[in-house]
Amino acid sequence: MENDILIKVEHLSRRYGNTLAVNRLNFEVKRGEVLGFLGPNGAGKSTTMLMLSGNLAPSSGAITINGIDLLEEPKAAKLALGFLPEQPPLYRELTVDEFLDYCARLNRIDKGKIAAAVDQAKQRCGLTAVSKRLINNLSKGYQQRVGIAQAIIHSPDVVILDEPTVGLDPIQIREIRQLIRDIGTEHSVILSTHILPEVQATCDRVQIIHNGELVLSDTIDGLTQRMQSSSLVVALRQPPALAELGAIAGISAVEPLEGGRLRLSHAPQLNPSERVVERAVAEGWGLYELTPERLSLEDVFVNITTTDTAADTTEEAAA
Fold first, then answer.
1. 167, 14 in Cβ contact below 8 A?
2. What is the pTM for the complete model shown?
3. Tens of pLDDT along 210-257?
4. CATH top-level class of 228-293
């Protein structure tokens, strides 16, 4: 439904001189969705985040926040938006309470509702026990929590988090990921990160941007399907000729590996494992290993971005 779409991006582009950093992006973020936004360095990810948060004007295109045009009505649109940049905008000489009170007033929360808003943000971000402490004396994990608290203090419909777990230890990362999942139950969240396991742990959907263009948009379930095995590694005591293996139905390629093993490539929907086992037994090949290979999210990410890079290089050479 249209009213469930909280962010709508249409033909969004940004130029820096002759450099096209972001090229005609189109996507939507729905209510209650956590969207992972990925991209290698220089892909245009940070530029996109700055445009979505209203901190950078696009060269062309439109951004709608909860039905309000961000360019035409920036103040009204930003009321529905919370933003945590990569470097949290903290006043470290203030206590947590003082800083959040200040943020509540910046977000135009009614004076009589400020105390309740501060208390709710502290509770949601696990800050109640440190509310009287100076921000400068908090650990980095707690400082990130304060940064997230300022982004959600006015209960925005959309929360944008740019690299929220950078520099944290494993325990802090786990706590922040859980906090992001909790936020995602009531708000829509865009999570910009280069930490791939973070996407699998926290997001409902993932988008990959490369060379300023959107090269992948899929659900986590769809991404999992992309990561399914499309090859088998086998070891045979009496291996046949490679051509004989390649002739088994479903196998598209045979590749020798170290240690005498072989990689048998196949289409994801045509797994030939059963046929390989039957043939190995019938022919006495001495099969002692058969392992499906599974792509990681990192493999998918690298395959998509390096394939695009190679294509770009080929096109430039041809030109």
1. no
2. 0.77
3. 999 999 898 888 877 776 668 899 999 999 999 999 999 999 999 999
4. alpha beta
Confidence check: pLDDT of 317 > 70: no
Distance between CA 212 and CA 57 in Å, rounded? 16
Count CB atoms within 10 A of the CB of residue 68.
17
pLDDT recorded at residue 130: 97
Fold of the domain built from segment(s) 2-80+156-225: Rossmann fold (3.40.50)
Under a CB-based contact definition with an 8 Å cutoff, are residues 157 and 122 in contact?
no
**Paired tokens of 59:** 């060269």
What does the domain layout of the chain look like in residue ranges? Answer: 2-80+156-225, 228-293
Domains 2-80+156-225 and 228-293 share a fold: no
- Over residues 93-105, the pLDDT tens digits come to 999 999 999 999 9
Predicted confidence (pLDDT) per residue in 263-314, tens digit: 999 987 788 999 999 999 999 999 999 998 877 777 777 777 775 544 444 4
